C-alpha cells in the first residue's frame, strides 16, 4: 500500500530569501486552501519566518507545485518530497534540526496553529499524518537534549550579540505579537533591563490597547532614535519610515518578506541582520550532541505514523467493502431464503462470517507489508 503524501517547501538554507518572499501569498490564504483542498482532497499549510510548507494527500508533489503556482500566478521551484521522504521531512522540520535555533519550541506551536487553520481543509488521512508529526515534536522536547537547549531566536541573539545588547540604551520593537513579548521578557530577565529605555511600536492596522509585558504600544509614526531596533511585525511596513532612523543602529529584521533593504544597510553605522543572516550564524554554532538519538526517534516515529496510516486505510477499505457486501446480500437474500426465518438467520451468519474472514485477511495483508 503506497503512502499518499506530497510535500513542497521553500526554506532558508535551501531557497534564497528572495525565492521565499516571491511565493508567500499576500492575501487571505483561505481561498488558496479551499482551491487546493478541492483538487487534492485535503491540504495543510504552514508559514513561518523561515519557511513555507504545503502538504497534500497525493503521490505527485509536482502536481501540488504546479497547482500552487497556478493559484499565485508565479513560477515556483520548491523542494519536493513524497511518501516516506515527505514524512521524514516534516519530522525533521518539527524536530527543529533545520531551524535557526536548534531546540526552539516555536516550530511546535506553529504546527499546532497551522493545524487549526488548515483543519477545515484536511481529510482524515492528512490529519493522521500531521497529528503524528506534532506528537513526535512533543516527545522530542520531553525525552532528548532539546529540552535543555535554546528556546527561541531571541535567546540566540542574546548569545551572539552580547556586546551590542550590553551597549544599548534605547531599544525599539515594532510589533505586538508573541515575538515582541519574547523580546521584552528576555530583556526583563537579564541584568540589563534597568539600564534600558524600551518602547514598542505598532502599525495602525494592528493597533492594540493591551500592554506587552507591561509596556503599552505607540504608533510607528512616533518612532524615535534607538540603539537596537527589532522588526517583529507580520504586517506591511512602509520602508520609508526606516530611512529616518538614527545612525549607529543595529536592526534585527524578523520579517519574511523582509522589512529592510540595501538602501538602509548602506547608511553609515546601520547594521542589519535578517532571518537568513541568523540562520547562517546559527549553523556555525548549532548543537550536535544527541543528534543521533533524535534521528533514531524520528525513524521510529516515521514507522509508527506509516503503521497508523495503513490501519486508517485498512479501516476505510474495510468499511467500504462491508457496506458493498452487506448491500449485495440484502439485494440477493430473497432469492435464497424464500421467507424461511431459519434460512434467513443462517444466511446472515454466513454473510457475517464471510465479512470477518475478509477483514482479517485484509488487515494481515496490509499491516504485514514492509514499512
Q: Could you walk me through the main structural features you see in this protein, from its secondary elements to its overall organization?
A:
With 371 residues, the protein is of the alpha/beta class. 51% of the residues lie in helices and 13% in strands. Helix 4 crosses helix 6 (124-143) and helix 12 packs antiparallel against helix 13. 35% of the residues are buried.
Structural descriptors:
single chain; about 375 residues; alpha/beta; Beta Polymerase, domain 2; Rossmann fold; about 50% helix
In short, what is this structure?
The chain has 371 residues and is α/β, with parallel strands linked by helices. It contains 13 helices and 10 strands.
Question: Any idea what the shape is?
Answer: elongated
Given the structure, what is the number of helices? 13
Q: What is the string of SSEs from the N terminus onward? A: EHHEEHEHHHHHEHEEEEHEHHH
Number of domains: 3
The radius of gyration over CA amounts to 27 Å
What profile does the largest beta sheet have? 6 strands, parallel
- Average pLDDT rating: 81
Taking the alpha carbons of the first and last residues, their distance comes to: 9 Å
CATH architectural type of the largest domain: 2-Layer Sandwich
CATH topology of the largest domain: Beta Polymerase, domain 2
- CATH C-level category of the largest domain: Alpha Beta
Q: What proportion strand? A: 5-15%
Low-pLDDT runs: none
Order the strands across the largest sheet as they lie in space. Answer: 7-6-5-8-9-10
Query: Class by helix and strand content?
Result: alpha/beta
Helical fraction? 40-55%
Total strands: the figure is 10
Spell out the CATH superfamily of the largest domain: Glutamyl-tRNA reductase, N-terminal domain
Oligomer: single chain
